[in-house]
Amino acid sequence: MELSIDTASELASIALSREGHVSSDVAWQSKRNHTAELLPRIEQLLDGSGVDKSDLSAVFVSIGPGMYTGLRVGLSIAQGLARALVIPAIGVGRLELDAYPHRDFDGQIVAVHRAGRGELAWGSYQARPWRELSPPRIAPPEELAYALQERTLVVGELDEKLLALLEGRNVTIKAPASEGRARSLAQLGFKRWRAGQTADPALLRPVYLRPPAIGPQERRK
User: Fold this and answer.
1) Which CATH superfamily is domain 98-174 in?
2) What is the pLDDT of residues 191-216, one digit of tens each?
3) What would the 3-class secondary structure string for the chain be?
4) What is the pLDDT of residue 48?
């Protein structure tokens, strides 16, 4: 069995799978309570499925970009389980997980989430075969709208400014999957594990597209 953990946003999700096929999962609005809620939720999922931690053969985890605290909690628990059980931990990006449910779309798939300061984080993907076209980056809505091709699917957290810029364009807009990202994580994580894309769990790092807003901050003029 494999355990998938996504805590990149306020919508957290976890899943149990066998060879990438999800057998049980749960998603919930954690807000900013990942520290207190994640481990009990994992215990409930395991107990409800009759699975012991020793039955796990791999852990898959979302590495962001996203919420600083949420990502650290998810990664820390994934790394701890992998170390304790001597099993691999494999990381997959949050934007790729948002894009993956739409892999049947015949064209470019762009995943977006709000990154604060009026900017958006985004990355682009393409199916058949599934691959990353543009790695995650941060840009203002105007720059992202200019970069989008025609016949593109845009999925995720879109702000009003980007929606206005896309009006009249040959662009399909979708909301993120309401069931969370853990189902996609189970599939993509297993594919990477099967392909031998593993590393020491200690080497997993969260993807932060800008430094955390702590410590001395430069004053805006």
Assistant:
1) ATPase, nucleotide binding domain (3.30.420.40)
2) 999 999 988 899 999 999 987 655 55
3) CEEEEECCCCEEEEEEEECCEEEEEEEEECCCCHHHHHHHHHHHHHHHHCCCHHHCCEEEEECCCCCHHHHHHHHHHHHHHHHHHCCCEEEECHHHHHHHHHCCCCCEEEEEEEEECCEEEEEEEECCCCEEEEEEEEECHHHHHHHCCCCEEEEECCCHHHHHHHCCCCEEEECCCCCCCHHHHHHHHHHHHHCCCCCCHHHCCCCCCCCCCCCCCCCCC
4) 97
